[in-house]
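Internal tracking record. Fields below are filled automatically when a chain is submitted to the structure queue. Please do not edit lines marked as system-generated. If the sequence contains nonstandard residues, flag them in the REMARKS field before resubmitting.
Queue: standard
Priority: normal
Entity type: single polypeptide chain
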Amino acid sequence: MVDQDKRSLLGASLLGALALPYAARGEAAPAQADKAVRDLPMASGPFMPTPASLKTYQTPEWFRDAKFGIWSHWGPQAVPRQGDWYARHMYIYGHPHYEHHLKTYGHPTKHGYKDIIPLWKAEKFDPDALMALYDAAGAKYFVSMGVHHDNFDLWNSKHHRWNSVAMGPKRDIVGDWRKAALKRGLRFGVSEHLGPSYSWFSASHLYDQVWPLGGVSYDGADPRFADLYHPAHDEPFRWGRSWYAKNPAWHRQWYNRVRDLIDSYQPDYLYTDGGIPFEIVGRTMLAHFYNQNRAKHGGSLEAVYAYKDLGTGEFYKEAGVEDVERGVMSGINPLPWQTDTSIGDWFYSDGFKYKTTTEIVAMLADVVSKNGNLLINVVQYADGSLPPECRTFLSEMAAWMAINREAIHGTRPWTVFGEGPTRTAEGAFKENAAYTPQDIRFTTKGDALYAIALGVPAGPVAIGALGRVAGHERRPVRSVRLLGTKRALRFEQTDRALVVDVAGAAPVRHAACFRIGF
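SYSTEM-GENERATED OUTPUT FOLLOWS
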């Protein structure tokens, strides 16, 4: 088939996909949408931008084996040291970020977010040194921020002048991270948070409500910077209701930039901060990602698309990997999934309370026992270096993983995820469980069963799921060993529980992992 015939066939298929939701309502697809889809370039392959086609997706084994990834959620918003969403909140009169900006940089009528960007120098950014730490800590995939809601691209963007090669650090941040990750053998991914930007950044067009500058528009209203702050529009941001704007021109710009990110850096992992954006446009992007990745890997699909079921955009559980932000599942999920969280705030924030290594290890074990992966943001200063809390975590995590990685990497869930007194709430933004050493999580690999106590036991460990009458395992327990030691532990398997005597065992930190043989 000649290229023109292929393009015609692909265009007809796209238009058919576009018509599906309208045909279901007895309507015709709008002409402007028809043209928008016809013009979207998409890699050829088995995936089409329809729910039915995307639901044929299968999660690759590398992701199921990886279990643990590290994310660099980093960019110009780290400069003020105030945390997440600074680029929006600095334009909301009375917000602490507004007050900080006023005192530190000046009034947002003249000194806006555009003036923060040149202050981001990344002068101490050493991706190779950082990746060595992430590799040692047990990460099997690394994710670079591609673009946040602030509409600033962290790569050599073909479609947007506001990017890190042209401004700020004048470095290809995504490209530098990619080289470092691949050199270490980690899978490489990118995150895009661009879809909501059109509405999210509308705050930059506001103004003070009071004297002396009441009614004077902030710098976002200056037409010279409309390509950063977006043109004036009537689609204001409302959390949970207008995450994605309806403007077709914005949909096309989003598509061009995200496709450029995919094609230029060929990630095996793509994260979207929400559901699939913009209906057929977003589905076309996803089909393109899958088809392009499949061609890159000689017909084997190695791509992972992580996205959220929060009522924003489209979500089909079989079409990718469900991501739960700062939260977990309550039980074993039949499909692979992911928790994404941060050791601190999403962008560096002075005085923010950091998670401890013990908390992160417990969360990792809980997530993995339920068929999930944990992706954690390791916060960076604006200069690219790490706060001391992050260095401590990476050092402690490396030490724990050196002993216990076999209970994490390459494992699969057991018949039950675990047991113990602590109940976990399911869903996003519900991650604050206070685990105890009596909380046990199970993983399996080959003939081995691992029982992970989410803390350091002070006495005998009783595992009810391995009692003789519990019904989960017919074979009698033959051996129990604490990972990091060669000596078998004494145990007794009663009807009610497997009771393990840890007296005299080597000291452990954060969580104790037992390998159980049958």
